[in-house]
Each structure stands twice: as structure tokens, then as C-alpha cells.
From TrEMBL:
GO CC annotations, alphabetized: cytoplasm; membrane
Source species of the chain: Diversispora epigaea
CHCR repeat intervals: 422-639
Protein name: Vacuolar sorting protein 39/Transforming growth factor beta receptor-associated domain-containing protein
First and last residue of the signal peptide: none
Domain Vacuolar sorting protein 39/Transforming growth factor beta receptor-associated: 306-409
PANTHER family: CNH DOMAIN CONTAINING, TRANSFORMING GROWTH FACTOR-BETA RECEPTOR-ASSOCIATED PROTEIN 1
Pfam families referenced in this protein's UniProt entry, alphabetically: Vps39_1
Highest taxon in the source lineage: Eukaryota
InterPro entries xref list: Clathrin_H-chain/VPS_repeat, Vam6/VPS39/TRAP1, VPS39/TGF_beta_rcpt-assoc_1
GO biological process terms, semicolon-separated: autophagy; endosomal vesicle fusion; intracellular protein transport
Amino acid sequence: MWEPVRGTLQWQSFPRAIGVELPYVVALLRNNYIEVHNIMDQQVVQSVQLSSKSRTISTGPGIKVQVAGLTEKLKWENVILESSNNNIDNNKTPQQSIIEQANFLATVPTRLIIAGSESVMALAATPLIVQVDSMLDANCVEEALEMAEQAISTATPENVHSERMRHEFNYIHQKSGFIYLGETFFDLAVSLFEKGKTDPRILIRLFPEMREVIGDDDPINMYSGVKAVADRLGSIEDIVSSSMIKNYDPHIKPDIDTSPATQELRKALITNAKDMLQKFLTWDRGQRKSTSNVLTKKDKVILKAVDNALLRLYTESDSEDLLRSLLESENECDLDLCKKVLEENEKFYPLSLLYKQRKEYRKTLEIWQRLIDQENSDLDFPDGLKQMADLLAKLDDQELVWECASWVIHKNEIIGAKIFILQDAKKPLLVDPSTVLQELRSVGKEGLKLFLEYLVDTRKSQEDEHHTEYVLLSIQDIKAESLKKETRLKFDALTKEFTEHKQSGQTYLSFLMNQPIEDSFSQARTRLILFLQSSNRYKADEVLLKLKEAEILKAELAVVYGKLEQHEIALKILINDLKDYRGGEIYCLQAGRVIGIRKGAPKKRASKKVDEKSLTTKRRTLFLTLLKVYLEMDNRDEMVDIVIHLLNTQAVYLDIMEVLSLLPEYWSIEMLNNFLVRSLRQSYHNYREGQILKGLCRGENLMIKYELSQAYQDIGPIIITQNVVCASCKKHISGAEFMRQPNNDIIHVQCDFDKSSRDNSLEIIDSTTTPSTSNIEESNLIPLSAV
């Protein structure tokens, strides 16, 4: 047997016909009654007895019924501000579109038709607003909202009432919000205003001091039924006064207006009301600014009022973070209106942000300068100079940039230098570098060094003065730092550590680079050494004199000596002073250009200008010099392992005879076994390779001689008689100094040379002269011997 389940509708008798029009189910019973159930709670909401017998209920296009009460409640009315009452004709009829919209919303379509033997009837559902509005008028807000929430789920696209119901829901929430507002339940009211999609300007106009943010010509439409409630409440001052009279009069003595307690309460309620407005405007702004929404003309008008109202609220409540966030983002604030508010409240930094957002950069910078100079007190201006530098780096106005940048340089030279460092490196500098350098020199050294580093490193300046000045300033800073006792002790400890770990294969440069980043002294030396190695633009003589003043900068000194081609001194510094044996080998391999290679740096191909043969020759010389430096050391016997390592690894660059002449006689052959074997193999390889090349050259010479012999045979002999004269000087040919030209003329070799010289001189005097044929075909001349 079947059992009813949850949500089942029940009738006393089996229905003759059933029709559905959400949220109602209508059944025609056999006793000629109509029963209407609410599908949400399955309760009977109405039972009607028909006067005539009906046969069925059909669902079709139905008919439209206009409910007069809906027209009055859902009709839009324009909210007129008091300040503009005199400028508006109150007798003017509503716009035709508003009337049509009201008529549309007041028209209730019905799809249920009851057909009988004598009549045809239509069933029209009572609109939700008619049911709820009476509850709201009776101040039963919670019950009305509960009924509305139940009906929301039925407002689906399939529901023919969905468009009207959407307006009904907005109407209900808005009217409920104003009822709660009249009771000063601000937190409850704001959530209802959000759900009812209330025009924020309607709430703004409740505050008389903010009405100026709303344009007089901006139409503000409001449901007629809601407007009646809002007009009855009046302004927020009226609402607060009414609430206090209702709740406290006549208990407060002497009266509500003069009692200190009620005055404080009034201020608290006004503050709560503004907090409500601020919360609602912030929510509304976020909804309209959503990336998924495209702003319409109406949205922009509303946003203008919202932004101006929020700026006033943030300013009055000292909400600095919110105020900055509003002004730093894209906004619709009115400049003149907001300027007045900000100046009255001495909010000069927010005013500068407003100017910045409007791209009035000169006014922005002028305010910032005054704030930094403390002409105006504004403690909320964080990192003023840094903000100026960031802004100036993005501007293209050369005059404005230099005017403010020079001012910043005198306030803080480092931040002043960063103005130009932060500019787009792909574009030319807005201000001539020499002008900037001159200004920085007049202030100090730190900003000057920073800007020079930017020029030579990022901008790739090719000016020798820039490179030299940067190096000299770096040396000066490192020298000053080295004079500190703490730095010197740390340097000695690092030197000792490097010496004790000399077998690790590290160069002195890589050892410095591996120091913690907190070790600023080692990091500064690393940057200087790398720059000295990579740059060829600084004046090495001047740098050398400066380095000699700093006794601890040995590695830097070795690099500069290498630039000056004084390789023996450089190697002695690396070996004797630094004990950097690995660095000495790299120095020789790199032909004296570097003392160490940065780990992870890309390997650069050798320049085409570097002759491989000359490079090999230079390496041979440097490795031989390195060997001599090793052998000249006082502890030569202790250097045996290092010398043997050098001989074994670099045998290709060391001549065996020169090496043997330098080594001590008491060193055994066994010690030199690897070196000797490799050297002999290399020597024999070079000998055999030379023999092969010699054989190839002999074969090529033999082929050329054969080709020359064939040419002589093809040309044949030339017989010189007493009648043969030179085609140039017309003198007789005597001796073997003559030649035959391609046109078979016989000419003295000297005459041909003189003629070529004259032709070349003419070409120099007149560059438009065409080279002579004899010059072009000179390579075709064949010298002959007299027969």
C-alpha cells in the first residue's frame, strides 16, 4: 500500500483538474470547490466555491490584469533635493518611460483558466507586494521579510512573474530598510539596503552636509511607496531627534536638546549613521567596480557621488588608510569639491594624491616639498623623498624633473641619484649626465658613486672619466672602511683562512665572492675587482697611484698591473702576497686580463681580433714567468708540489729546455717524470706536424713552379733587338729590366712604376678620376728576362 511522503499535497476528494502557477497549486474538486495550496509549505491558503459548475482548469497564454495598488507603489518618482526645488517645475508630468514601466510592473499575468458550462474564469494570484506591504505598514518587518525570503526561491526564469517579483523584492527590502532606519537600527538597515539595490544617492541625501556631492540635474528614481516612507522620516538629524523623543522624552531633564547625556547620545547616533552610510557606499562601489561589470553612464554618475561622499566620510573619521586607497586608485572624485574638503581638514598628503591621480604632477610635487620642509604639519606622509623619486623617474617633463631632482639631491643625495637610476634604461636620460654629476659632486660622494655605477654598468658609458672616477671613489670608500679596527681584524682573519685552505683550488676572488652578503667589505672588494677586470676605460696609471695608498688592496693592484702589462709584478703579488696559486695560473691562461673567473658566468668566445698564435706566445711567456716566481721564493723547497703541479698541467706552454735550465740540479728525474713525458710527446708531436706541413708546402711550391714553366712555354721567348724601344720613354731596351704588358707592349720596369705612381697621384688630387687600365691590370703583368 502506498504511503504519502514529505511534501505531499492532499485533498478531501480526487481533483477533477490541477493547475500550477508558482508558488501556488490550484485544484478543481468534484464538489465544485477551488482549493489553493502553497507549494512551499503545502498548506491550503484559500478555498473558493464556484457558483456554476466548472469542468476543467487549463494552462494557456491567459490574460493580463492590472492591479491599481501596484501602480502607486512601484511607480518611480524622481527625488528632488531641497536646494534645487526652485529650479524644477513640480507640475511637470512624469516621463513617459516611467509611466510605461509602472504600468508594466502593475500588470499581473495569469495562465490559469477555469472553463465551465456557463462561464470562463481566470485565476489571478495576489502580488507578493500587496500581501507584504500591509504587514510593513503594521511594522511587522520580520514577518514580511520572512514571507519575501520564501517567495524568492520561486522567482525563476520560468516564472512569468519573475520580472515583477524582482522589483517587489527590491521594494520590500528598501522599505524595510527605511523602517529600521527610523528606529536607528543602522546595522539591520544597511544589509536591507544592499539586498534592495538601493540607489546610494538616496541615502546620501539624508545627510544635508553631503547633498552637494549629488548633481542637481542627476535624476534619482525611487519607488513611490518607499519614497513616502523616506519623506516621512526626513533627514538623519530628524530621524535621530524623533528616536530620542520617542525613547527618552520626558524622562531626560531639563530637556532632550540641552541635556549633556542626550547630546553625547546624539553624536553617537550620528556617528553610527555615518558608519552605516560608509559601509553601504563601500559595498556599492565594490559592486560597480567589479571587473565583470561594464560601467554605464548612470553608473559613472552614481560613482561620482559615491566617491565624493566616501572622501568626506574618510576625511571626517580620520580613516587615513581608506582615504589613501580611494585616492590612489581610479576614482570619480570632483577635484574642486574634494580640494575644499581636504584643505579644511588639513589633509594635504591625500590632496597631493588626488592631484597625482589627475596627472597634475607639479601641484603634487609642490605639496610634497612643503610637507618635507615642514611648512605644513602632516605626519602621515611616509617616505616623502622616496615617493618623489619614484614619481620623478616616471615623468617626461625635463624642466619639472630637474627642478625637483636638484632639490631632492640636496636633501638626500642617494635618493636624488635614484631619480635617474629608476628611469627606463631603454630611453636616453632625460637630463644630461654631466649636469647630474656636477650637481652630485657639489653635495657628496655616495650619490655620485651610485650614479657613476649606473652609468658604467647599466648605461654602458664609454667615457673614460666616468670609469676612472667610479674606480677612484670605490677605492676611497674601501680604504676608509679598512681603517676601522673591526674591519681590519676581520680582513686578517679572512686572509689567514684563505692561506690555510690554499689546497681547496679556490682563487682569492672566488673566496671573496663566497663570503656572506652581510660582509659588506668583501662584497665591495668583489665588485671593484670584477669591474677592474672587465673595464678597459679607466686610466690605469691614476688608479695604480690610488691603490698604492691602500696596502690591503693587493688583488686589485695585481689586476691593474696586468692592465699595464707589468705581468711579473702582478704575478709576484698574487703568489708572494696573496698565496693565490690558482689565481696565478688563471692569470697566465687569460693572458694577464683576469685573476679569477666568476662562478656561473657564461664563457665568452675569444675576440676575432685576438690572434691565437700571439695568445699562445703570451701564455708561454707568462707561465715561464710564473715558474720563475715560484723558484725565486725563499721557501722554494716547500713549493715543490705546486711547481710540479704547474709543470704537469701546463706542459704545453712550457719549453722543456728552458724549464730544465731553471730547475735545481738536485731535483730527481722521477719528480719530473710526468712533465718530461708530456713535454717530449708534445715536442715530438710538434716536430712531426712540422714535417707534414713542410712536405705539403714543398708539394705546393713544386706545382706552382710547374704552372710557371707552362706559362713561359705558352708565352714563348721575346727577342730584343736594337730596334726595340720602350713604349713609355721611347728609349732602347738594354739589360734584363723590362716587362711585357697585356697589350704586348715592351716597357721598362721603372717606367711602369713611374707611370703607376703618377696615376695614383692623380687619383688623390681628383677622386672622381677613373683608375687607369694599367693600374687595374697590373696584377696581370708578367716579368720576362731578356733572351
